[in-house]
Amino acid sequence: MKKMFAIVLLGAMVAGCAATAQDAPTVIDAAVTAMGTSNVQSIQYSGTGEVFMVGQNVRPEAPWPRFTVPKYTASVRYDAPAFREELVRVDDENPPRGGGAGGYSAETGQGGMRPIIGEQTQVRQGTPATDNGFLQVWMTPHGFLKAAAANKATLGNADGRRTLTFQGRNKATVTGTLNDENLVERIETHVDNAMLGDMLVEALYTDYKDYNGVKFPGRIVERQGGNPTLDVTISSVQPNGAGTLEVRANPPGEGGGQAATSQRLGDGIWVITAGLNSVLVEFADHLVVIEALGNDARSRAVMAEVKRLVPNKPLRYVVNTHAHYDHSGGLRAFAAEGVTIVTHDVNKPFLEKVLTLPHQINPDMLAKSNQKATVEGFSDKRIMTDGKQTLELHHIAGNNHHDGILMAYLPTIKVLVQADAFHPRPGAKWQYPSPPQFTVNLVENVERLKLDVGRVLHIHGGMDPYSVVTRAAGRAGTS
Fold this sequence. Notes:
alpha+beta, outer membrane lipoprotein receptor (LolB), chain A, Metallo-beta-lactamase, Chain A, 2 domains, seven-stranded mixed β-sheet, 10 helices, about 35% strand
């Protein structure tokens, strides 16, 4: 009897699965009808809200920095998949804390004090070569339904809600949840992230309204890695509007290139440039690199240049100035080679955690190596020396950019290496109408430690006489 019951139950389960697969097109059609998706070839929507800087929190466990968005506009094309968003952000936290604080000023070459308004434009266009471009389109409510139909989505159930799931171009599944009115209320997937690995990306859609037969949400909340990245209230929606037809190219940015060049700064000291700057310091029996930015590709380029410059010594340490993603995304490649990571105590637990996260969508060097990363932390300072060469690592105490930010000092050449306390840019006019507080704090720390600094090397590019930095901090007449 028990055997007969098990057979009947198994048959019912198989029949249920078959029915679920057969019902998916019906559910998609119902949602398409409810939302007016079949009539939507493009859409433009605008609103106001908040945006958050991914991975730029003032300490690893803190929220990502928040910026007010008085103007937000997104345009989506479904016929030739493309996504574009433009926003104006207002940096109105006081005092500024974390990355992205203030706006960049071409006049000063520096981040400005708050409040400041800076326009940020992002363009993401889907082509066969850009999986994430397609993903931005698919993560919109109407884009998801079109993709679900085209990719033979399967029907499921989560917490009593119907779900539709299909495989994305990056090998990760894309899942959308429908409410009782057949409206898309949630879409989630995973994308490859240099820091967080297979990172969860979510979009939540609520407060739907009707726009001439097309339903669109009145509020959009996006999250990455469990943290909010966007929260906007939609005030205007234009289905098939002319404004959605123009999609321009991405503006150029600071890349983390895949080729590295180097320049000798002194005996056993080189700056290695691959988009941004890292520093190589040679000791009697080993090597140290300061900063692993970006991703695996950049770190491989840096390590190749290290090997070319000093082929007969092992690379033992890589110094991480702070845990912001742009300054830590290349650490995994170094860890895969058995290189020990040195950072401030504030960053150590976070780095130890993220260095164990799965990277299955796009396995990187560490994921393939089976190597366990080693992270060493310290509080105020750490001195590395062999009696001839010395590298001093100091905590930049009280800097609002990051609670665990470090600077490096090379006394033999009187060079200070700093990451984000001062931001020069090519072509700046080097006028400082007001001293940015991050730079003021940097100079205060140099003075507190009585460091004899002649030049300052910036991780984000360039090197200046220390007088340039002190002038930016309002120390006119000092050097």
